[in-house]
Write a structure and sequence with these properties.
Layout lengths: L1 H24 L2 H22 L2 H7 L5 H33 L3 H9 L2 H17 L3 H24 L4 H23 L9 H35 L2 H15 L2 H18 L4 H28 L1 H9 L7 H14 L2 H10 L3 H53 L4 H26 L6 H23 L2 H11 L5
Helix pairs in contact: 1-7, 1-11, 2-4, 2-6, 2-9, 2-10, 3-6, 3-9, 4-5, 4-6, 4-9, 6-8, 7-8, 9-16, 10-14, 11-12, 11-15, 12-14, 12-17, 12-18, 12-19, 14-16, 15-16, 17-18
Length: about 475
Protein backbone atom coordinates (compact mmCIF):
# COMPACT_ATOMS: atom_id res chain seq x y z
CA UNK A 1 0.00 0.00 0.00
CA UNK A 2 2.86 2.37 0.85
CA UNK A 3 4.66 1.87 -2.46
CA UNK A 4 1.39 2.05 -4.39
CA UNK A 5 0.65 5.35 -2.64
CA UNK A 6 4.15 6.66 -3.40
CA UNK A 7 3.66 5.78 -7.06
CA UNK A 8 0.24 7.35 -7.35
CA UNK A 9 0.96 10.49 -5.38
CA UNK A 10 4.42 10.88 -6.85
CA UNK A 11 3.02 10.81 -10.38
CA UNK A 12 0.04 12.90 -9.29
CA UNK A 13 2.28 15.53 -7.70
CA UNK A 14 4.48 15.77 -10.78
CA UNK A 15 1.46 15.97 -13.08
CA UNK A 16 -0.19 18.51 -10.80
CA UNK A 17 2.83 20.82 -10.93
CA UNK A 18 3.04 20.48 -14.70
CA UNK A 19 -0.69 21.16 -15.04
CA UNK A 20 -0.34 24.32 -12.96
CA UNK A 21 2.45 25.54 -15.25
CA UNK A 22 0.81 24.47 -18.49
CA UNK A 23 -2.51 26.07 -17.49
CA UNK A 24 -0.72 29.41 -17.49
CA UNK A 25 1.05 28.79 -20.78
CA UNK A 26 -1.81 27.26 -22.77
CA UNK A 27 -5.42 28.28 -23.39
CA UNK A 28 -8.66 26.53 -22.32
CA UNK A 29 -9.28 25.78 -26.02
CA UNK A 30 -6.03 23.79 -26.27
CA UNK A 31 -6.88 21.73 -23.20
CA UNK A 32 -10.36 21.30 -24.66
CA UNK A 33 -8.90 19.70 -27.80
CA UNK A 34 -7.26 16.98 -25.73
CA UNK A 35 -10.45 16.48 -23.73
CA UNK A 36 -12.46 15.91 -26.89
CA UNK A 37 -10.16 13.08 -28.02
CA UNK A 38 -9.72 11.44 -24.62
CA UNK A 39 -12.67 9.06 -25.02
CA UNK A 40 -11.28 7.53 -28.24
CA UNK A 41 -7.81 6.90 -26.78
CA UNK A 42 -9.21 5.51 -23.53
CA UNK A 43 -11.60 3.14 -25.29
CA UNK A 44 -8.82 1.80 -27.49
CA UNK A 45 -6.52 1.35 -24.49
CA UNK A 46 -9.27 -0.60 -22.74
CA UNK A 47 -9.68 -2.77 -25.82
CA UNK A 48 -5.93 -3.48 -25.96
CA UNK A 49 -5.88 -4.75 -22.38
CA UNK A 50 -8.99 -6.77 -23.23
CA UNK A 51 -9.55 -7.81 -19.62
CA UNK A 52 -6.63 -10.23 -19.94
CA UNK A 53 -4.60 -8.31 -17.38
CA UNK A 54 -7.32 -8.91 -14.79
CA UNK A 55 -7.60 -12.53 -15.89
CA UNK A 56 -3.86 -13.09 -15.43
CA UNK A 57 -4.01 -11.61 -11.92
CA UNK A 58 -7.12 -13.59 -10.99
CA UNK A 59 -5.59 -16.89 -12.22
CA UNK A 60 -3.67 -18.59 -9.44
CA UNK A 61 -0.60 -19.73 -11.41
CA UNK A 62 -0.41 -18.36 -14.97
CA UNK A 63 2.28 -19.94 -17.13
CA UNK A 64 4.91 -18.42 -19.41
CA UNK A 65 2.81 -19.63 -22.34
CA UNK A 66 -0.17 -17.69 -20.96
CA UNK A 67 1.85 -14.51 -20.69
CA UNK A 68 3.39 -14.86 -24.17
CA UNK A 69 0.02 -15.53 -25.78
CA UNK A 70 -1.54 -12.40 -24.32
CA UNK A 71 1.55 -10.32 -25.10
CA UNK A 72 1.35 -11.04 -28.84
CA UNK A 73 -2.41 -10.56 -28.80
CA UNK A 74 -2.00 -7.12 -27.22
CA UNK A 75 0.64 -6.06 -29.73
CA UNK A 76 -1.38 -7.16 -32.75
CA UNK A 77 -4.57 -5.58 -31.50
CA UNK A 78 -2.86 -2.28 -30.69
CA UNK A 79 -1.52 -2.01 -34.24
CA UNK A 80 -4.98 -2.72 -35.70
CA UNK A 81 -6.66 -0.18 -33.45
CA UNK A 82 -4.07 2.48 -34.26
CA UNK A 83 -4.73 1.86 -37.94
CA UNK A 84 -8.45 2.40 -37.37
CA UNK A 85 -7.80 5.63 -35.46
CA UNK A 86 -5.57 6.83 -38.29
CA UNK A 87 -8.24 6.08 -40.90
CA UNK A 88 -11.16 7.58 -38.99
CA UNK A 89 -9.35 10.65 -37.64
CA UNK A 90 -10.89 12.90 -40.35
CA UNK A 91 -14.38 11.70 -39.32
CA UNK A 92 -13.67 12.62 -35.69
CA UNK A 93 -12.40 16.06 -36.76
CA UNK A 94 -15.59 16.69 -38.76
CA UNK A 95 -17.72 15.53 -35.83
CA UNK A 96 -16.23 18.29 -33.66
CA UNK A 97 -15.85 20.77 -36.57
CA UNK A 98 -12.11 21.15 -35.84
CA UNK A 99 -9.67 20.14 -38.59
CA UNK A 100 -6.68 20.22 -36.20
CA UNK A 101 -8.02 17.19 -34.35
CA UNK A 102 -7.29 14.92 -37.32
CA UNK A 103 -3.50 15.31 -37.04
CA UNK A 104 -3.59 15.35 -33.25
CA UNK A 105 -5.46 12.03 -33.06
CA UNK A 106 -3.16 10.37 -35.59
CA UNK A 107 -0.07 11.24 -33.57
CA UNK A 108 -1.60 10.72 -30.14
CA UNK A 109 -2.84 7.25 -31.14
CA UNK A 110 0.74 5.91 -31.03
CA UNK A 111 0.38 5.62 -27.25
CA UNK A 112 -1.67 2.44 -27.87
CA UNK A 113 1.38 0.55 -29.14
CA UNK A 114 3.63 1.77 -26.32
CA UNK A 115 1.04 0.79 -23.72
CA UNK A 116 0.62 -2.68 -25.25
CA UNK A 117 4.36 -3.32 -24.87
CA UNK A 118 4.25 -2.97 -21.08
CA UNK A 119 0.92 -4.56 -20.12
CA UNK A 120 2.24 -8.05 -19.36
CA UNK A 121 5.26 -6.84 -17.37
CA UNK A 122 3.07 -4.43 -15.39
CA UNK A 123 0.56 -7.13 -14.50
CA UNK A 124 3.35 -9.52 -13.49
CA UNK A 125 4.73 -6.93 -11.09
CA UNK A 126 1.25 -6.25 -9.70
CA UNK A 127 0.54 -9.95 -9.21
CA UNK A 128 3.82 -10.32 -7.29
CA UNK A 129 2.96 -7.14 -5.31
CA UNK A 130 6.23 -5.52 -6.47
CA UNK A 131 4.83 -2.01 -6.30
CA UNK A 132 8.23 -0.51 -5.49
CA UNK A 133 9.46 -1.15 -9.03
CA UNK A 134 6.19 0.13 -10.49
CA UNK A 135 6.48 3.30 -8.40
CA UNK A 136 10.02 4.02 -9.58
CA UNK A 137 9.29 3.48 -13.27
CA UNK A 138 6.09 5.53 -13.23
CA UNK A 139 7.65 8.46 -11.40
CA UNK A 140 10.69 8.58 -13.70
CA UNK A 141 8.47 8.44 -16.79
CA UNK A 142 6.25 11.21 -15.39
CA UNK A 143 9.23 13.50 -14.72
CA UNK A 144 10.63 13.07 -18.23
CA UNK A 145 7.27 13.62 -19.94
CA UNK A 146 6.49 16.72 -17.88
CA UNK A 147 9.82 18.33 -18.66
CA UNK A 148 9.27 17.75 -22.38
CA UNK A 149 5.74 19.23 -22.25
CA UNK A 150 6.80 22.36 -20.34
CA UNK A 151 9.73 23.05 -22.65
CA UNK A 152 7.54 22.65 -25.74
CA UNK A 153 4.83 24.90 -24.23
CA UNK A 154 7.42 27.62 -23.57
CA UNK A 155 8.53 27.31 -27.19
CA UNK A 156 4.97 27.90 -28.41
CA UNK A 157 3.95 24.44 -29.59
CA UNK A 158 0.48 24.79 -28.05
CA UNK A 159 -1.62 21.63 -28.03
CA UNK A 160 1.31 19.60 -29.38
CA UNK A 161 3.07 19.97 -26.03
CA UNK A 162 0.19 18.03 -24.44
CA UNK A 163 0.38 15.37 -27.16
CA UNK A 164 4.14 15.02 -26.63
CA UNK A 165 3.60 14.64 -22.89
CA UNK A 166 1.37 11.60 -23.41
CA UNK A 167 3.66 10.01 -26.00
CA UNK A 168 6.83 10.43 -23.93
CA UNK A 169 5.07 9.17 -20.79
CA UNK A 170 3.91 5.99 -22.56
CA UNK A 171 7.24 5.37 -24.32
CA UNK A 172 9.49 5.88 -21.29
CA UNK A 173 7.16 3.87 -19.06
CA UNK A 174 7.17 0.96 -21.51
CA UNK A 175 10.96 1.04 -21.77
CA UNK A 176 11.52 1.08 -18.01
CA UNK A 177 8.90 -1.54 -17.13
CA UNK A 178 10.27 -3.91 -19.76
CA UNK A 179 13.77 -3.38 -18.34
CA UNK A 180 12.92 -3.98 -14.67
CA UNK A 181 10.35 -6.69 -15.35
CA UNK A 182 13.07 -8.97 -16.80
CA UNK A 183 10.54 -10.96 -18.78
CA UNK A 184 10.80 -11.80 -22.44
CA UNK A 185 8.01 -13.33 -24.51
CA UNK A 186 8.40 -16.57 -26.40
CA UNK A 187 7.37 -16.82 -30.04
CA UNK A 188 4.31 -18.86 -29.17
CA UNK A 189 0.57 -18.34 -29.27
CA UNK A 190 -1.55 -20.89 -27.42
CA UNK A 191 -5.21 -20.97 -28.39
CA UNK A 192 -5.91 -23.06 -25.29
CA UNK A 193 -4.45 -20.37 -23.03
CA UNK A 194 -6.27 -17.68 -24.97
CA UNK A 195 -9.63 -19.41 -24.60
CA UNK A 196 -9.14 -20.05 -20.90
CA UNK A 197 -8.24 -16.43 -20.12
CA UNK A 198 -10.80 -15.12 -22.58
CA UNK A 199 -13.64 -16.83 -20.71
CA UNK A 200 -12.95 -14.59 -17.71
CA UNK A 201 -11.37 -11.60 -19.44
CA UNK A 202 -14.10 -11.18 -22.06
CA UNK A 203 -16.69 -10.02 -19.53
CA UNK A 204 -14.13 -7.82 -17.80
CA UNK A 205 -13.36 -6.29 -21.22
CA UNK A 206 -17.01 -5.59 -21.94
CA UNK A 207 -17.53 -4.15 -18.46
CA UNK A 208 -14.44 -1.96 -18.78
CA UNK A 209 -15.48 -0.74 -22.23
CA UNK A 210 -18.91 0.27 -20.96
CA UNK A 211 -17.39 1.89 -17.87
CA UNK A 212 -14.77 3.78 -19.88
CA UNK A 213 -17.33 5.06 -22.37
CA UNK A 214 -19.77 6.18 -19.69
CA UNK A 215 -17.04 7.77 -17.55
CA UNK A 216 -15.90 9.89 -20.50
CA UNK A 217 -19.07 10.46 -22.51
CA UNK A 218 -19.41 13.85 -20.77
CA UNK A 219 -16.44 15.09 -22.77
CA UNK A 220 -17.99 13.81 -25.98
CA UNK A 221 -21.27 15.61 -25.29
CA UNK A 222 -19.71 18.87 -24.11
CA UNK A 223 -17.21 18.91 -26.96
CA UNK A 224 -19.93 18.38 -29.56
CA UNK A 225 -22.54 20.78 -28.15
CA UNK A 226 -20.37 23.56 -26.73
CA UNK A 227 -17.15 25.36 -27.67
CA UNK A 228 -13.61 24.07 -26.92
CA UNK A 229 -13.21 26.58 -24.06
CA UNK A 230 -16.16 25.05 -22.17
CA UNK A 231 -14.61 21.64 -22.72
CA UNK A 232 -11.33 22.99 -21.37
CA UNK A 233 -12.98 24.34 -18.21
CA UNK A 234 -14.68 21.00 -17.62
CA UNK A 235 -11.54 18.92 -18.24
CA UNK A 236 -9.40 21.02 -15.90
CA UNK A 237 -12.06 20.96 -13.17
CA UNK A 238 -12.24 17.18 -13.45
CA UNK A 239 -8.46 16.81 -13.33
CA UNK A 240 -8.31 18.78 -10.11
CA UNK A 241 -11.17 16.83 -8.54
CA UNK A 242 -9.57 13.52 -9.51
CA UNK A 243 -6.38 14.51 -7.72
CA UNK A 244 -8.18 13.40 -4.56
CA UNK A 245 -11.03 11.07 -5.52
CA UNK A 246 -9.43 8.90 -8.20
CA UNK A 247 -5.85 9.02 -6.96
CA UNK A 248 -6.65 7.84 -3.44
CA UNK A 249 -9.13 5.22 -4.58
CA UNK A 250 -6.79 3.86 -7.25
CA UNK A 251 -4.04 3.45 -4.66
CA UNK A 252 -6.39 1.25 -2.65
CA UNK A 253 -7.85 -0.54 -5.69
CA UNK A 254 -4.43 -1.37 -7.13
CA UNK A 255 -3.46 -3.23 -3.98
CA UNK A 256 -6.92 -4.49 -3.02
CA UNK A 257 -7.56 -6.53 -6.18
CA UNK A 258 -4.59 -8.93 -5.97
CA UNK A 259 -5.00 -9.21 -2.17
CA UNK A 260 -8.72 -9.98 -2.45
CA UNK A 261 -8.00 -12.44 -5.27
CA UNK A 262 -5.68 -14.37 -2.95
CA UNK A 263 -8.40 -14.45 -0.27
CA UNK A 264 -11.22 -15.34 -2.68
CA UNK A 265 -12.04 -18.65 -0.94
CA UNK A 266 -12.40 -17.07 2.52
CA UNK A 267 -15.46 -14.80 2.33
CA UNK A 268 -15.30 -13.85 6.02
CA UNK A 269 -11.74 -12.60 5.64
CA UNK A 270 -12.72 -10.71 2.47
CA UNK A 271 -15.45 -8.91 4.42
CA UNK A 272 -12.91 -7.84 7.05
CA UNK A 273 -10.60 -6.49 4.34
CA UNK A 274 -13.44 -4.66 2.60
CA UNK A 275 -14.65 -2.95 5.75
CA UNK A 276 -11.17 -1.71 6.60
CA UNK A 277 -10.50 -0.41 3.10
CA UNK A 278 -13.89 1.21 2.53
CA UNK A 279 -14.16 3.02 5.88
CA UNK A 280 -10.55 4.23 5.88
CA UNK A 281 -10.81 5.47 2.30
CA UNK A 282 -14.07 7.31 3.02
CA UNK A 283 -12.59 8.86 6.17
CA UNK A 284 -9.86 10.49 4.07
CA UNK A 285 -11.69 11.24 0.80
CA UNK A 286 -15.06 12.56 1.98
CA UNK A 287 -13.70 15.53 3.97
CA UNK A 288 -11.13 16.38 1.31
CA UNK A 289 -13.79 16.54 -1.40
CA UNK A 290 -16.07 18.77 0.65
CA UNK A 291 -13.35 21.10 1.87
CA UNK A 292 -12.22 21.58 -1.74
CA UNK A 293 -15.80 22.44 -2.70
CA UNK A 294 -15.89 25.02 0.11
CA UNK A 295 -12.68 26.71 -1.05
CA UNK A 296 -13.27 26.21 -4.79
CA UNK A 297 -12.83 29.81 -5.97
CA UNK A 298 -9.47 30.57 -4.33
CA UNK A 299 -8.31 27.04 -5.13
CA UNK A 300 -9.01 27.38 -8.85
CA UNK A 301 -7.35 30.82 -9.01
CA UNK A 302 -4.33 29.59 -7.04
CA UNK A 303 -3.84 26.50 -9.17
CA UNK A 304 -4.85 27.63 -12.66
CA UNK A 305 -5.08 31.49 -12.50
CA UNK A 306 -8.14 33.76 -12.74
CA UNK A 307 -8.84 32.94 -16.40
CA UNK A 308 -10.10 29.53 -15.24
CA UNK A 309 -12.80 30.89 -12.83
CA UNK A 310 -15.68 29.63 -15.05
CA UNK A 311 -14.58 26.12 -14.00
CA UNK A 312 -15.57 26.74 -10.33
CA UNK A 313 -19.21 25.50 -10.46
CA UNK A 314 -18.13 22.48 -12.51
CA UNK A 315 -15.48 21.67 -9.92
CA UNK A 316 -17.86 21.94 -6.96
CA UNK A 317 -20.39 19.55 -8.47
CA UNK A 318 -17.65 17.08 -9.45
CA UNK A 319 -16.40 17.06 -5.85
CA UNK A 320 -19.78 15.76 -4.70
CA UNK A 321 -19.75 13.09 -7.42
CA UNK A 322 -16.25 12.08 -6.34
CA UNK A 323 -17.48 11.07 -2.89
CA UNK A 324 -19.48 8.21 -4.38
CA UNK A 325 -17.13 7.32 -7.22
CA UNK A 326 -14.16 6.76 -4.90
CA UNK A 327 -15.89 3.72 -3.37
CA UNK A 328 -16.99 2.07 -6.61
CA UNK A 329 -13.69 0.37 -7.39
CA UNK A 330 -13.25 -1.54 -4.13
CA UNK A 331 -16.65 -3.18 -4.45
CA UNK A 332 -16.14 -3.83 -8.17
CA UNK A 333 -12.80 -5.57 -7.68
CA UNK A 334 -14.12 -7.59 -4.76
CA UNK A 335 -16.66 -9.16 -7.14
CA UNK A 336 -14.01 -9.62 -9.83
CA UNK A 337 -11.71 -11.31 -7.29
CA UNK A 338 -14.22 -14.15 -6.77
CA UNK A 339 -14.46 -14.69 -10.53
CA UNK A 340 -17.93 -13.26 -11.15
CA UNK A 341 -17.02 -11.36 -14.32
CA UNK A 342 -20.25 -12.33 -16.08
CA UNK A 343 -22.33 -10.85 -13.29
CA UNK A 344 -20.22 -7.70 -13.36
CA UNK A 345 -20.86 -7.24 -17.06
CA UNK A 346 -24.61 -7.82 -16.85
CA UNK A 347 -25.03 -5.31 -14.06
CA UNK A 348 -22.62 -2.88 -15.71
CA UNK A 349 -25.11 -2.57 -18.57
CA UNK A 350 -27.89 -1.82 -16.09
CA UNK A 351 -26.07 0.74 -13.96
CA UNK A 352 -24.42 2.49 -16.89
CA UNK A 353 -27.70 2.60 -18.80
CA UNK A 354 -29.36 4.42 -15.93
CA UNK A 355 -26.25 6.58 -15.59
CA UNK A 356 -26.55 7.74 -19.19
CA UNK A 357 -30.20 8.59 -18.62
CA UNK A 358 -29.21 10.76 -15.65
CA UNK A 359 -26.55 12.54 -17.74
CA UNK A 360 -28.74 13.16 -20.78
CA UNK A 361 -31.70 14.26 -18.65
CA UNK A 362 -29.55 16.74 -16.76
CA UNK A 363 -27.97 18.07 -19.96
CA UNK A 364 -31.36 18.52 -21.62
CA UNK A 365 -32.89 20.36 -18.65
CA UNK A 366 -30.04 22.46 -17.25
CA UNK A 367 -27.07 22.35 -19.64
CA UNK A 368 -23.53 21.57 -18.50
CA UNK A 369 -24.32 22.01 -14.79
CA UNK A 370 -27.28 19.66 -15.18
CA UNK A 371 -25.07 17.08 -16.87
CA UNK A 372 -22.67 17.24 -13.93
CA UNK A 373 -25.54 16.87 -11.45
CA UNK A 374 -26.48 13.78 -13.45
CA UNK A 375 -22.93 12.54 -12.75
CA UNK A 376 -23.63 12.82 -9.02
CA UNK A 377 -26.77 10.71 -9.35
CA UNK A 378 -25.04 8.20 -11.65
CA UNK A 379 -22.03 7.81 -9.32
CA UNK A 380 -24.28 7.17 -6.33
CA UNK A 381 -26.39 4.64 -8.23
CA UNK A 382 -23.29 2.78 -9.51
CA UNK A 383 -21.84 2.59 -6.02
CA UNK A 384 -25.06 1.12 -4.63
CA UNK A 385 -25.26 -1.50 -7.39
CA UNK A 386 -21.62 -2.52 -6.81
CA UNK A 387 -22.27 -2.75 -3.07
CA UNK A 388 -25.30 -4.97 -3.74
CA UNK A 389 -23.15 -7.26 -5.90
CA UNK A 390 -20.67 -7.53 -3.04
CA UNK A 391 -23.55 -8.51 -0.77
CA UNK A 392 -24.62 -11.18 -3.25
CA UNK A 393 -21.20 -12.73 -3.95
CA UNK A 394 -19.11 -11.91 -0.87
CA UNK A 395 -21.69 -11.53 1.89
CA UNK A 396 -20.91 -7.97 3.01
CA UNK A 397 -24.44 -6.57 3.24
CA UNK A 398 -25.33 -3.20 1.70
CA UNK A 399 -27.01 -1.96 4.87
CA UNK A 400 -23.98 -3.03 6.90
CA UNK A 401 -21.67 -1.17 4.54
CA UNK A 402 -23.84 1.97 4.67
CA UNK A 403 -23.98 1.73 8.44
CA UNK A 404 -20.18 1.47 8.56
CA UNK A 405 -19.97 4.60 6.39
CA UNK A 406 -22.68 6.48 8.31
CA UNK A 407 -20.52 8.20 10.96
CA UNK A 408 -18.01 9.44 8.37
CA UNK A 409 -20.74 10.71 6.05
CA UNK A 410 -22.69 12.53 8.75
CA UNK A 411 -19.58 14.12 10.23
CA UNK A 412 -18.35 15.23 6.79
CA UNK A 413 -21.65 16.92 5.93
CA UNK A 414 -21.99 18.53 9.37
CA UNK A 415 -18.46 19.94 9.18
CA UNK A 416 -19.26 21.28 5.70
CA UNK A 417 -22.28 23.17 7.04
CA UNK A 418 -20.26 24.69 9.88
CA UNK A 419 -17.44 25.64 7.50
CA UNK A 420 -19.90 27.28 5.12
CA UNK A 421 -21.40 29.38 7.93
CA UNK A 422 -17.94 30.40 9.10
CA UNK A 423 -17.14 31.64 5.58
CA UNK A 424 -20.17 33.96 5.28
CA UNK A 425 -18.67 36.98 7.09
CA UNK A 426 -15.78 37.00 4.59
CA UNK A 427 -17.70 36.94 1.29
CA UNK A 428 -15.84 40.04 0.05
CA UNK A 429 -12.46 38.32 0.42
CA UNK A 430 -12.39 34.92 -1.23
CA UNK A 431 -8.87 34.15 0.02
CA UNK A 432 -9.64 34.81 3.67
CA UNK A 433 -13.05 33.18 3.40
CA UNK A 434 -11.61 30.06 1.80
CA UNK A 435 -8.87 29.74 4.45
CA UNK A 436 -11.32 30.24 7.33
CA UNK A 437 -13.77 27.68 5.90
CA UNK A 438 -11.03 25.09 5.38
CA UNK A 439 -9.54 25.58 8.85
CA UNK A 440 -12.93 25.40 10.59
CA UNK A 441 -13.84 22.29 8.61
CA UNK A 442 -10.57 20.55 9.52
CA UNK A 443 -10.86 21.43 13.22
CA UNK A 444 -14.47 20.26 13.47
CA UNK A 445 -13.94 17.07 11.46
CA UNK A 446 -10.73 15.87 13.08
CA UNK A 447 -11.71 17.08 16.56
CA UNK A 448 -15.05 15.28 16.60
CA UNK A 449 -13.54 12.13 15.04
CA UNK A 450 -10.88 12.05 17.76
CA UNK A 451 -13.35 12.68 20.58
CA UNK A 452 -15.71 9.97 19.30
CA UNK A 453 -12.84 7.50 18.74
CA UNK A 454 -14.26 6.69 15.33
CA UNK A 455 -13.37 3.24 13.96
CA UNK A 456 -12.78 4.69 10.50
CA UNK A 457 -10.15 7.06 11.89
CA UNK A 458 -8.36 4.18 13.58
CA UNK A 459 -8.44 2.08 10.39
CA UNK A 460 -7.03 4.96 8.36
CA UNK A 461 -4.24 5.46 10.91
CA UNK A 462 -3.42 1.76 10.84
CA UNK A 463 -3.19 1.70 7.05
CA UNK A 464 -1.06 4.83 6.89
CA UNK A 465 1.22 4.62 9.92
CA UNK A 466 1.19 1.29 11.68
CA UNK A 467 4.39 -0.68 11.16
CA UNK A 468 4.25 -4.46 11.11
CA UNK A 469 7.23 -6.72 11.67
CA UNK A 470 7.91 -9.37 9.07
Amino acid sequence: MLWSAMQKFGVMGISFVSNVILARLLTPEEFGCMGMLAIFILLCNTFVDGGFGSALIQKKQPTHRDYSTIFWWNIGLSVILYGLLFLFAPVVARFYNMSLLCDVLRVQGLVLIFNALRLIQTNQLRKRLQFRLLAITNIVAAVVSVLVAIVMAFMGFGVWSLVAQQLVLAAVNALLVCAVGKWKPSFVFSFASFRELFNFGFFILLSNLVNTFCNNVQGLLIGRMYNPATMGFYSQARKLEEVVSNSLSQVVDQVAYPVLAEAQHDKTYMQVILKKLITSLAFVVFPLMLVMALAARPLIVLVYSAKWLPAVPYFQILCVAGMASCLQGINYYAVAAVGKSGSLFNWTLVKRGFGLLFLLGGLYCWGVEGLLCGMVMASTFIYLVNAWLVQKHVGYRVLTQLRDLGPVTLLSVAAFGIGYLARLPFTDNMWLGGCVAAMVYALVYLGVAWLMRMDAMQEARNLLFKKRKK
